[in-house]
TrEMBL record:
Keyword Metal-binding among UniProt keywords: no
Keywords from the UniProt entry: Cell membrane, Cell projection, Coiled coil, Cytoplasm, Guanine-nucleotide releasing factor, Lipid-binding, Membrane
Protein name: SEC7 domain-containing protein
Residues annotated as domain SEC7: 3-101
Species this chain originates from: Zosterops borbonicus
Keyword match Membrane: yes
Gene3D superfamilies: 1.10.220.20, Arf Nucleotide-binding Site Opener,domain 2 (1.10.1000.11)
A single cellular component GO annotation: plasma membrane
Length: 104
């Protein structure tokens, strides 16, 4: 078990990382990885974003919107085409990830 001073120091660094993330998501993630508060794996980053404690939702959206997979293709300029593409993505995502979203 970590000592109270180490826990306090870790919490302060995590708070700094959240602030950095809210200002610049890439730099925030980089800071947390460098401080060994977060591993640079999809699972750890996803867990960090999902918990979202103290994170700005716009910053989360910016981070997800700039991920590498979006650089591998070009979105069409027409809104209707983008809508169809996003609808197809959403259907496939829900099919591959049942139970992620619960019905209310």
């Amino acid at each position: 078990m970590a000592s109270p001073s180490k826990t306090l120091q870790r919490n302060r660094k995590m708070g700094m990382g959240r602030k950095k993330f809210n200002m610049d998501p890439k730099k925030g993630i980089q800071f947390l990885v460098e401080q060994e508060l977060l591993r640079h794996t999809a699972e750890d980053i996803a867990r960090f974003l999902y918990k979202g404690e103290g994170l700005n939702k716009t910053a989360i959206g910016d981070y997800l919107g700039e991920r590498q997979f979006l650089w591998s293709f070009r979105l069409p300029g027409e809104a209707q085409k983008i809508d169809r593409m996003m609808e197809a993505f959403a259907q496939r995502y829900c099919l591959c990830n049942p139970g992620v979203f619960t019905c209310t």
